[in-house]
Predict the 3D structure of the following.
Amino acid sequence: MRILVTGGAGLVGSHTAEFYANRGDEVIVLDNLMRSQIFGYSKKTVKFN
């Protein structure tokens, strides 16, 4: 089965994607990575997520 996970770079989305991938499903992750700009984080990377 194909699964689309929106917000896949966040906590819930990444765990959801991992769950379905471990089940053997095809997982497509979509995230705009805009959280740092929206909330004004000074870090230039999303690695802290």
